[in-house]
Design goal:
By secondary structure, the chain is mainly alpha-helical. It folds into 2 domains: about 80 residues; about 130 residues, no CATH class. The protein contains 13 helices and no strands.
Length: about 220
């Protein structure tokens, strides 16, 4: 059984370094590429071996200030590094955010204490679980499978509720499928679907899709 979000302790500091170097960072985080190998060496020298330990040691402003003082890595850099590290943890959101999910389904699931994406993902992973959940809620198994696909896709950083629906409408049903797509080909498909259905997914370009694909590959790498 998979967890909704990655276990950050399973991403080594070296792997996080590699991923950050290769990533097209948003403008506000581009300075993470500055002296990156030298600064990650400071982190390693401080005894940090994985992403989980990094997130913990940078857990507050006070901890960041203390670590900056002891390590020599600028506090401003550590603040951005903490945000980048945190982006690897999927954040759950209400099932009602997905377009196309009937209100009565959301309420039936809520009655069984399944309120958001993480709770659904972790309680509806198998055919047997979905069969039992269908009996408890009256929701057809096919629709539960649809919701499961949406919640699976929502584990990818950069894919929210609306974009998960767009990806689903393109025929992609899982993180693994998404990880094996081509950014240029599928970006056009997603734009066409968004325009056809009037989905408010915001403006996205091929580079944004590639960012999501790269993250999906990290998920399946650690599955």
């Amino acid at each position: 059984m998979e967890n909704y979000t990655l276990d950050p302790t399973r991403i080594s500091l070296e792997r996080f370094n590699e991923l950050t170097i290769s990533k097209r960072l948003i403008p506000s985080r581009i300075i993470l590429h500055e002296q990156i190998n030298e600064r990650f060496q400071f982190l390693k020298n401080a005894g940090i071996s994985n992403l989980g330990e990094l997130i913990k040691i940078l857990g507050s402003k006070q901890k960041i200030a203390a670590f900056a003082s002891s390590s020599g890595v600028p506090a401003e850099y550590l603040v951005l590094l903490k945000r980048e590290a945190g982006s690897y943890l999927a954040r759950p959101f209400p099932l009602s955010d997905f377009p196309g999910i009937p209100h009565e389904y959301v309420e039936a699931l809520k009655a069984k204490e399944i309120r958001h994406t993480r709770e659904f993902f972790e309680r509806a992973q198998t055919d047997d679980q979905r069969h039992k959940l269908s009996g408890l809620t009256g929701i057809p198994e096919a629709r539960l499978m649809e919701i499961f696909s949406l919640t699976d896709l929502s584990r990818i950083t950069g894919i929210g509720a609306v974009f998960a629906r767009i990806v689903f409408e393109s025929g992609i049903r899982s993180v693994r499928q998404f990880a094996n797509t081509d950014a240029s080909t599928h970006c056009k498909k997603y734009l066409d679907i968004s325009e056809k259905h009037g989905y408010a997914a915001g403006h996205f370009v091929e580079e944004d899709i590639q960012y999501c694909i790269d993250y999906a590959r990290v998920i399946i790498e650690k599955a």
